[in-house]
Write a structure and sequence with these properties.
There is one protein chain. By secondary structure, the protein is α/β, with parallel strands linked by helices. It has 2 domains: 181 residues, 2-Layer Sandwich (Endonuclease, Chain A); 127 residues, Endonuclease, Chain A. Helices cover 31% and strands 28% of the residues. The protein has 10 helices and 17 strands. Strands 1-2-10-11-17-16-15-12-13-14 form a 10-stranded mixed sheet, with helices on both faces. Strands 3-9-8-7-4-5-6 form a 7-stranded mixed sheet, sandwiched between helices.
Length: 327
């Protein structure tokens, strides 16, 4: 039995008994919400079965499933969404460039502007959130390198539900500031932001500036100069990066610039895509989500990031980084 199935059998059992054991309270002196819950579940496609994981959490829903996807063509996800829609509120927002006719009706809306609706998240019943780089497509599930992270958090769920409602109501490339930019889950700090509203590049730069020992990254499209500048200023620590080879030919790619300055960077060896958007800081902080470090990701597209200050989560992403680096 594979890791994903074991994890989600456990997830299903716990959620059925205790809503994943969430209890919340406010850290009043700092006005930062905190809660206790199950630790985040992390999967890496195609080595892990991201399709089964996403289907499993959607299947947990009893009230609603609200998802914002850049692209969707996985039959298993389309099927479970259709089945759950008979008894729960299932709604999808998808980028119009990927309107392939596989899903339609009153429960589906497509963006109508020039920006990309580039998110890859679901929020379920007000306490489950899935995000990462994984689009529920055949390519992302079985060929491209991707990550999927699943949180059990009422506060993060409220953030993502607010973002979903903006998109559902036609507010693309704009919106309000995130309600809970910082949450503590089991004592570990989690930051959550949505671009372009929350200046995602600034948050990535701040995390890089805090690095004391190491910065590792895996990126699909990396063209943002200020993020590359922040890495260059940290040239006295351990820095390694992997770029998707198909994107490195762009004149805006920061691959050649970092390489020319002597940074230890390389192109991926996957004949498909390295689709991660991941930074790992000091072996204890992970940045992931839909946000490519690019100008489009910063100023134009609808995106999300989470910054997870958790050594155990970082350890899992470091294992994936090692796999990609040595692939």
């Amino acid at each position: 039995m594979n890791k994903a199935l074991i994890l989600f059998m456990l997830l299903f059992f716990i959620s059925g008994c205790s809503k994943l054991g969430i209890s919340g309270h406010s850290v009043k002196e700092k006005a930062i919400p905190a809660e206790t819950s199950q630790e985040p579940i992390v999967l890496f496609c195609p080595r892990d079965n991201c399709t089964k994981a996403l289907v499993s959490v959607i299947n947990l829903s009893q009230e609603y499933v609200h998802c914002a996807f850049f692209d969707l063509d996985l039959n298993e996800v389309i099927k479970i969404a259709g089945e759950k829609s008979k008894n729960t509120d299932v709604r999808l927002v998808i980028d119009n460039d990927n309107n392939n006719g596989l899903v339609s009706g009153d429960s589906v809306r497509f963006d109508s502007q020039n920006q990309l609706s580039h998110n890859k998240f679901c929020v379920i019943d007000g306490y489950i959130v899935s995000t990462g780089s994984f689009n529920p497509t055949q390519r992302d599930a079985y060929y491209n390198n991707n990550n999927l992270i699943i949180f059990s958090s009422r506060y993060l769920a409220e953030n993502y539900e607010n973002e979903f409602n903006e998109l559902w109501n036609g507010y693309f490339g704009e919106g309000g500031k995130v309600e809970y930019p910082v949450v503590y889950i089991n004592g570990n700090k989690v930051e959550n932001y949505f671009c372009p509203d929350d200046k995602c590049s600034e948050k990535v730069v701040n995390a890089i500036n805090s690095a004391k020992a190491s910065i590792y990254f895996m990126t699909f499209s990396f063209t943002k100069e200020d993020i590359a500048d922040a890495i260059l200023f940290k040239n006295n620590i351990d820095i390694k990066g992997v770029f998707d080879k198909t994107q490195s030919g762009s004149k805006y790619s920061q691959y050649w610039r970092l390489k020319d300055f002597g940074m230890d960077v390389k192109l991926d060896k996957n004949k498909y895509f390295l689709h991660h958007k991941v930074f790992i800081i000091d072996n204890e902080t992970v940045i992931t989500g839909s946000f490519n470090p690019s100008s489009a990701g910063e100023y134009k597209n609808d995106e999300n990031i989470v910054i997870i200050h958790n050594k155990e989560t970082a350890k899992k992403y470091l294992e994936e980084f090692s796999y990609v680096w040595n692939q």
